[in-house]
From TrEMBL:
Highest taxon of the lineage: Bacteria
Pfam family, one: Abhydrolase_1
Species for this entry: Bradyrhizobium jicamae
SUPFAM superfamilies: alpha/beta-Hydrolases
Residue intervals of the AB hydrolase-1 domain: 93-337
Protein name: Alpha/beta fold hydrolase
Length: 360
């Protein structure tokens, strides 16, 4: 066997030095990661028009010289905060809408307090949303309002639209919104009425703890957090990658508790009895049938959505009573559909094209 040449030793030495430097850089960046708070999220200028308990209504300051006549009200999911749609400049759906000339409002949520455990589905559908719509009308001076609902915010928007079918909602846009809760497979198993004592849980805890909600999401992809952390470590010196990771990870773990009675209704009416899909849903004694919605509707679904699989969302367009209705399936997952580079290229331009024609 031939002994290594001087050139071989030089190559080995260079490689060792490179790996040592790489490890040092990774360690330094790791210290920076844990010692810094990350980018500031949700920084698009806005004013709080009204707040009441868990409900907060914001109006974003216009950024275009000409604004569409019909204002837009975004209804966020009750489990997550609205800054996923307003990450940082250049990656903000809110900023995009403002620059495209829309007058944007958001119904966002904070954690319900223990004394708000008695909030029911009707408080959200028959009180919070109508109250915000009225305030948007008063602030904008317009009668018509377009509504955008994200995930379960879409479910609330559908219930609102089906009950208040004579207006003032002019257009409805749903992002990744489930209606057939039998197809939310892992959630359906988690909430199986044979094993899940929702009454005992809510009677003892008051509100649904956020830790249980977060764990139910993470059970959908048990290894995803570990895989993400490995990927972060491998790319720790890539500032753009780290910035993106921190934004999405912060939002994903910033889960809100759910008001007890509200969660009880979600479990029994939607998860157990699938009433929205079966056309038997009522809210506060008022029927909520999807066929009663007649306004133009766009439903955007994600090709690789592990939270709301397509089978849970695909019947929405066929059950809606509107003549002007469209479903669009785009690449991405439950979050990347609406936020990040994928959303910038696909969903945002599609929504602008669809909504702009219906906002004059």
């Amino acid at each position: 066997m031939n002994a290594p040449t001087g050139l071989d030793f030089a190559a080995i030495s260079e490689r060792v030095q490179s790996e040592v430097q790489r490890a040092i850089q990774r360690s330094i960046k790791g210290v920076e990661y844990f010692s810094s708070s990350g980018p500031s999220l949700g920084s698009t200028p806005k004013d709080e028009l009204h707040s009441r308990g868990t409900m907060h209504l914001y109006h974003y300051r216009p950024q275009a010289s000409e604004v569409y006549r019909v204002p837009v009200l975004i209804v966020m999911a009750t489990t997550n905060r609205g800054y996923i749609l307003d990450l940082v400049p250049g990656q903000s759906f809110i900023e995009f809408l403002l620059k495209r000339g829309y007058d944007v409002y958001m119904l966002d949520w904070t954690a319900p307090k223990p004394e708000e455990k008695s909030l029911r589905m009707e408080d959200y559908v028959l009180d919070f949303i109508p109250d915000c719509v009225r305030r948007v009308q008063q602030d904008s001076g317009e009668t018509d309002v377009s509504v955008i609902g994200y995930c379960f915010g879409g479910v609330l928007s559908l219930l609102y639209g089906s009950i208040f079918k004579d207006g003032p909602m002019k257009n409805l846009i749903c992002f990744t919104t489930p209606i057939d809760f039998r197809e939310m497979k892992l959630f359906a198993n988690f909430a199986d009425r044979r094993y899940f004592d929702v009454d005992g849980l809510i009677d003892s805890t008051g509100n649904m703890p956020p830790e249980l909600i977060l764990q139910s999401f993470e059970m959908l992809r048990p290894a995803s957090r570990m895989a993400g952390q490995v990927q972060l470590w491998e790319n720790i010196w890539n500032d753009e990658f780290v910035k993106s990771y921190r934004m999405f990870d912060r939002w994903a773990t910033d889960t809100l508790p759910l008001a007890g009675e509200y969660f009880r209704a979600i479990t029994k009416d939607l998860m157990w009895d699938n009433k929205l899909y079966n056309d038997t849903m009522t809210v506060g004694g008022r029927q909520a049938k999807l066929a009663d919605i007649k306004v133009p509707i766009l439903h955007a679904v994600a090709e690789h959505d592990h939270i709301v699989p397509y089978d849970a969302a695909k019947h929405l367009i066929t059950k809606i009573g509107s003549e002007d209705k469209e479903e669009v399936m785009l690449k991405g997952g439950h979050v990347s559909l609406v936020a990040g580079a994928n959303a910038i290229k696909r969903l945002w331009p599609k929504l602008d094209s669809w909504l702009g024609k219906r906002s004059t």
